[in-house]
Please model this.
Amino acid sequence: MFRSLRQPEGYAGKCGYCDFQDVCGGSRSRAWAVSGNYLASEPYCTYRPRRPDSDRPASNTYRENHAETGALSRDEVADALSAPPS
Ligand code: SF4
Model:
């Protein structure tokens, strides 16, 4: 069980192919509470990651959709999370 929790690429649904799976991964407890499967996709997340087999343009990514809001990119989020608290 703990090994599967540490491998977000094995999650079902959109959390399994999301751009942010390694910095987010969604709530495993909410997935379990709603679906009975702790590896299911996060039920309350409104983000719609691009499916790997989709021909939807790459511009439909979080970064592109939120560029005007100043939201952080995936790499910026990863850097912020790995930085020691100041
Ligand atoms: S952003 Fe949403 S879809 Fe992506 S990993 Fe997090 S909860 Fe899942």
User: Anything to note?
Assistant: Residues 14-15, 18, 20-21, 24-26, 41-42, 45, 47, 49 surround iron/sulfur cluster (CB under 6 Å). Helices lie at 2-5, 28-35, 62-65, 74-82. The first helix runs from residue 2 to 5.
